[in-house]
Amino acid sequence: MRVRNIKNKKEILDNSSYVIDNPLVYKGKWKDLFKNNNPIHLEIGTGKCNFIYEIARQNPNINFIGIERIDTVLAYGIKDLSNKPFLNNLYLMNYDALKIEDLFDKEIDTLYLNFSDPWPKARHEKRRLTNFRFLEKYDIIFLGDKKIVMKTDNSNLFEYSIVSLSNYGYKITDLSLDLHKKEDYNNIMTEYEEKFSKKGCKIYMLSAVKKDEK
Ligand SMILES: C[S@@+](CC[C@H](N)C(=O)[O-])C[C@H]1O[C@@H](n2cnc3c(N)ncnc32)[C@H](O)[C@@H]1O
Fold it and tell me: Percent of the chain at pLDDT above 90?
């Protein structure tokens, strides 16, 4: 994602009650931070936070965490959130999911991957968030059954993800090749989804579950 720099991004991130600046200390203790035992849903690559804020607003009995590796992008999102009602079931952080196993220990119920970077070149395959290298890391963060919900406009990444998830033992439990035509789905649009669907692109969606082996 290419974005204009914001001069006071550090100030914006430091002053937001949503932003966790020392996330490693909460590994295994996220429930303490939320002060309840509600399930925790995670979004990797949360961008400017439209999706994570809205899904958290609609689901007060679920806790949400959004991870975004580019500080400027997160700062833009936080700036917008300051005009909206505060939610106590949402935390955000500037962090690279490459080290996701350092953040959570069997604590996550559902993982959202919305419009993840497609990394089309073969030599960048291992950077895709549905590459088996990431799927191995996700095994560590999930509590019980592993649930991934993915949306993208990119058919190559979508196909790749179906194969990668299936090879890793996930079962595809829901799938749409044109999500905006699907009637039984409470869709919450992301920034990229708005942009691409306005251009006429179809939005692909899948849900996948890997049963807990224990
Ligand atoms: C194409 S944008 C999509 C943003 C948003 N999810 C949406 O749908 O509008 C992908 C985002 O994922 C972030 N991202 C990519 N890899 C990441 C990683 N390893 N850890 C955290 N964020 C990542 C990027 O910085 C970028 O903001």
Answer: 93
Given 102, 105, 117, 139, which residue is catalytic? 117
Annotation says 184 is catalytic = no
Q: pLDDT (tens digit, 9 = 90+) per residue, 45-54?
A: 999 999 999 9
* Domain assignment present for 126: yes
Structural domain harbouring 41: 9-210
Residue nearest to atom 13 of ligand 1 (CA): 45
Give mean pLDDT, residues 158-172.
Answer: 98
Crossing angle (nearest 10°) for helices 155-167 and 132-141: 60
Task: Give the amino acid at 155.
Answer: S
Provide the CATH number for the domain around residue 117. 3.40.50.150
Q: How far is the CA of 1 from the centre of ligand 1 (A)?
A: 7
**Which phi and psi angles does 13 have, rounded to 5°?**
-70, -40
Residues in contact with ligand 1 by the CB-under-6-Å rule are 1, 44-47, 67-70, 73, 96-98, 114-117, 190-193
Would you say residue 181 lies in a domain?
yes
> Is 3 part of a structural domain of the chain?
no
**Residue 201 placed within a domain:** yes
Domain count for the chain, please give it.
1
Helix residue spans in 87-206 (DSSP H): 132-141, 155-167, 191-198
